[in-house]
Amino acid sequence: MDLVLLLTVLSIVVAGTGTALVVSEDRRVGVGLLVAEYLGVAGLLTLAGQPAAALSRVGVGACAAAILVITLQRMDVERVRSVEGPTPPGGWFRLSASLLVVAAAWGLSNSVAAILPGLARAQAGAGVALLTLGLLHLGLTEDPIRWVFALLTAQLGFEVMYAVLEPSLAVQAILAGVHLGILLVGSDIAGRQKASVEPESTGI
Amino acid sequence: MNAPAVLLVLSGLLGAAGFLARRRAVLSAVISGIGAAALGGLSLGVSLDAPILWIGGTLKVSGVWTLLGRSFVLDEANRGAVGFIFLAGAFLLAGSWAARAVRYLPSFGVIMVACVAASLMIRPFLYAAPLLEMAAIVGCLLLVGERPQSHRAGLRLLTFYTLAMMALLLTGWMLGTAGVTSSTQLQAERVFLLLAIGMAVLMVIPPFHSWLSAGAEASDPYTLAFVVIVLQSAGLFLFLGFLDSFAWLRESVELAGRLRWAGLATVSFGTLWAVSQRQTPRFMAYAVVSDVGITLLLLSRFEPPAYQIALGMVGCRAVGLAVWALGAANLPGEGGRAPRNFGLASAASLAGALSVAGAPLTAGFPGRWAALELVGRTDVWAGGLVVASILILTVSLARRATLLVPTMGEPGDHGPWGQRLFLGGGVAMVVALGLFPQLLYPWVIRAAQGLHNLMP
To answer: Where does B177-279 have alpha helices with state H?
Structure first.
């Protein structure tokens, strides 16, 4: 298959996964979509000739899945959902906002690809879409698990573009460490939220 | 043997030791405080690339450590800054037990300081951004407690720092690899925008200050003071690094103008929002924002004395905030937890707060006075705002102090002698540095002595 076509298809899949992550209400489904995002980004990086960066994303995606699954198991999802703060906006609103964001991102992809040398238009589109979807998601939630989804989505979007500019292994390793740090913080805060509704639990 | 590896590995070991001793607050604080001070002394004093006599033999300490293709370098250009960050960390960590801070502060605090030190040593320095993000992650773990507002503070802190990391990495790439200069005007505009976003986050400039005000409501005050001081210092050093490395940035009239406007807006916003707060911790958070605004006004001058005063103000802010937090943590009510050491705690809380406000006879005043002399010469608006911020914040604090006065007379000064020593010493330090700023400023200014382009 033509490389450009493959990149375009993969970029659309990645942007679609990001949209589904914003719309999805079930956090267990969200974990699956986040892992799919990691795999999609790894695919984009492989096609861009960055196999080491792609491999590190696969590894971090696996770690993310493990950490989030353990966190959700400990949280007793249904119970925590009932004590959350404001109800997030409805699914149709989130879907339409996400589609608007993706359309805007696709429109911006040419300009971004022109600024960053070596970046294909499809990659730029996927990167900007993930980045903006992550920011949109951040604006819609204060739930720590969804916050993790949002921040990691935004960061993956940035890395799709930055990995082409800076392929250094050291930087990739530090960025992978940042992913794990975000997961750790989100998991810790989610655990504390559970502790705050269970008086017998203790924290730091 | 190389110095960066020794500094970073020993920091990790100190963090581990502090973690193991976390249930013994004094021991944990002593380990991390003395350890960080020793590392600060090492980074300032070690002879690099020269033979040193060591147990009958000779030892050569290299200043370069290469890891995964990138180098960590300790040299004359950055050893002052690395030493400053370790010593500032040691100052705060040693007092953590007296403030009954979060018990993980001594261990995680050393790790956080090490992340910032690593960000100062990494080459090219543009890769400092992810290391600062790591420091923010550790800071986030320290800030988050059981109250939901502290969760919000942690989430916002990390969100902002992640965005700043992206902006700074792209800025670094544009400046370092893409060769953007003032002659490429459109590209230079993009660099200004990205740099502005990154630095606004790192220096807690509105609207990226909301984690600080949320944290002031719910997080431990001493821990919050530690996180703010370490992250802000790192932000200032990174900005000075940008200016030192790129001549066109420090000669840019546009950048100077934007820094000035940002400074004016930040001082006004911080001062007005501070006086409108009911809770003292939130007042302090906005007073810090106002203080940062004055730092921005100084940086906009692009003059060596302005950089020196800005660095001195960071040192004084560390002293003032630490003493305030030490006192606040020992007061009942806002931020405090136990009715002990009322008199000394009230005095410390008040002295520290007045110092951050820049009141006369406190550590914060000489820096503001010097800033006033420097910026007020040619910029009446800036000078007027500096004076107004000192007056408004001090008067507001004086009104709040009436709430503390009854507690000063109450019998309660029966805490451990070490705690009383820290509280009393803190008050004495704030007053001493207000009267004799030469005790601190020459040392703090050394932190930037290696930036030869900024301070020839």
So the answer is: 185-202, 210-218, 221-245, 247-250, 253-275
Torsion on CA atoms A50, A55, A58, A63, rounded to nearest 10: -130
pLDDT for A1-19, tens place per residue? 688 888 889 999 999 999 9
Number of domains in chain B: 2
Domain presence at residue B181:
no
Candidates A166, A171, A188; nearest CB to B144:
A188
Domain of B269, in residue numbers? 252-456
Does the residue B234 lie in any domain? no
Point out the residue among B67, B137, B152 whose CB comes nearest to the CB of A142.
Answer: B152
* Structural domain includes residue A169: yes
The residue out of B107, B123, B139 marking a domain boundary is B123
Chain B residues touching A185 at Cβ < 8 A: 137, 140-141, 144, 154, 158
Residue A140 lies in a domain: yes
For chain B, give the longest Cα–Cα distance: 68
- Separation between Cα atoms, residue B398 and residue A98, nearest integer Å: 51
What is the distance in angstroms between the Cα of B134 and the nearest Cα belonging to chain A?
6
CB-CB under 8 Å, A170 with B70: yes
Instruction: Give the pLDDT of chain B (456 residues) as one tens digit per residue.
Output: 788 999 999 999 999 999 998 888 889 999 999 999 999 999 988 887 777 777 777 778 888 888 877 789 988 888 888 999 999 999 999 888 888 888 889 999 999 999 999 999 988 777 788 999 999 999 999 998 777 777 888 899 999 999 999 999 988 888 877 666 666 777 788 888 888 899 999 999 988 988 998 888 888 889 999 999 999 999 998 888 888 888 888 888 888 899 999 999 999 999 999 999 988 889 999 999 999 999 999 999 988 889 989 999 998 999 999 999 988 887 766 544 445 557 788 888 999 999 999 999 999 999 999 999 999 888 899 999 999 999 999 999 988 877 665 555 555 555 677 788 888 888 999 999 999 988 888 888 877 777 778 877
Q: Which of B123, B145, B160 is the last residue of a domain?
A: B123
Residues of A in contact with B144 (CB under 8 A): 185, 188-189, 192
- Best B72, B138, B162, B210 member to test A by mutation, with max A CBs in 10 Å, is B162
The answer to whether residue B241 sits within a structural domain is no
Smallest CA–CA distance from A132 into chain B, residue: B163
Q: Does residue A176 belong to the interface with chain B, where contact is any CB pair within 8 Å?
A: no
Residue B202 inside a domain? The answer is: no
Q: Which domain holds residue A140?
A: 3-197
Chain A contact set for B147 (CB, 8 A): 196
Q: At B158, list the tokens.
A: 């990390």
HEC string of chain A equals CCHHHHHHHHHHHHHHHHHHHHHCCCHHHHHHHHHHHHHHHHHHHHHCCCHHHHHHHHHHHHHHHHHHHHHHHHHCHHHHHHCCCCCCCCHHHHHHHHHHHHHHHHHHHHHHHHHCCCCCHHHHHHHHHHHHHHHHHHHHCCCHHHHHHHHHHHHHHHHHHHHHHCCCHHHHHHHHHHHHHHHHHHHHHHHHHHHHHCCCCCCC
- Does A178 contact B at CB distance below 8 Å? yes
Q: Tell me the average pLDDT of chain A.
A: 84
Confidence at residue B412, expressed as pLDDT on a 0 to 100 scale: 52
Task: Determine, for residues B158 and A151 on separate chains, whether the beta-carbon distance falls below 8 Å.
Answer: yes
Quote the number of domains for chain A.
1
